[in-house]
Amino acid sequence: GDLAQIHLLNVLFGADKVIVGSFSGSLRVFLPSRAGWDVNDLLMESHLGLPILQVAIGPFASTVDGLTVAILHPRRLSVYEFVSNLGADRNVQHMQMNELWSHNLERSSYNFCTGSFGGESRSATGQNTYQIAVQSLDGQLQFFEESRATFARFIPQFLVAGPLTYVPQADEFITVNSTFEVQGFKYHSIAASEDSKQQQAAQTAASKLTTTKRLQPTWSIDIGESAVDVWAARVSRAEGASYEIIVLGEHTLFVVRPEGSIRVQKKLQYSPLTSFTYPVVRNPGGSDIHNIVVASMEGTMYVYSDSSLVWAAKLPEPPVAMRLATVQDLKGVIMTLSDIGKLHGLYLGTDPPSSAPSASDADPDYAKMDAEHQRLLGVIRDATSESRP
To answer: Which letter does DSSP use for residue 40 in this model?
Structure first.
């Protein structure tokens, strides 16, 4: 079936598992082990009976010690835990999934994002858990905290659903609407606002102006085109904000400052299909610096450091989703998934040398170098003289 999303599960013995969901309702978990395909690389396959729109990993249930998996269907949101069965040598042989909770959705969903909205969210047992915000096709954001549906709000001036991401540093949701505007909404503003339908009902009942608070963006900026992806990461090496907003448009790559002004915009000479970011410089006391990877419809992958193109490579097939993984202790493997469900593990470049070449301590023999230079000049003169008529 067609791809819905690819995600990485790094929860069992530190090895990256690749989770793939499809529109046909199949969920598969792979543990890549070697070049080529091996049947033992498939740890689990489950048919959920509903199209899978999105998959995410996180602590969504306080009853489970570890990470869980949230799966979005068109009219259903479910959270599962993975249970592994170990072989005699403590290797994972296969996995199974158990449903922890699910919600039937009143509206057709489009995508979702996760995080500790409003700050750290802790359960009764003191465990930090993530909340989930589901965006519907008609512009409603519905929030879930574990098995509870907390509240729902409509995004103002909404027509077509777009990409959605959550920025934990600012407790802010970023999206791009149908008027080509990148907008930021603070979580506390969303929670404190009144639903537009509730406002209309209150106005009808009172027949006068009400004091209800409408949802308004914290900031907004027009980029002039629709967006493919939105990410929050630091890409600038200069001192500044702890994060920036990367917006991949249909024709342009934008880097937006946290307050909503464009810092960089780079015109693309190709049609982008998907993107992701990965850290290249680790800052233990601050924010990691990331590179941006963009794949085109022509099947080429481009790597950007800030706004500079640093690498380009041809892919086996145009991908609809990409992630970075560690496969058998090999870091930097790019997992790509095509629209027909073909999974590839790709590696760019070569391994760095294990040891630097040693320089000779002997003094250069300038006389020998000059003699070699004169000999080569003679060869060049003879070659040019013979070629003349």
So the answer is: G
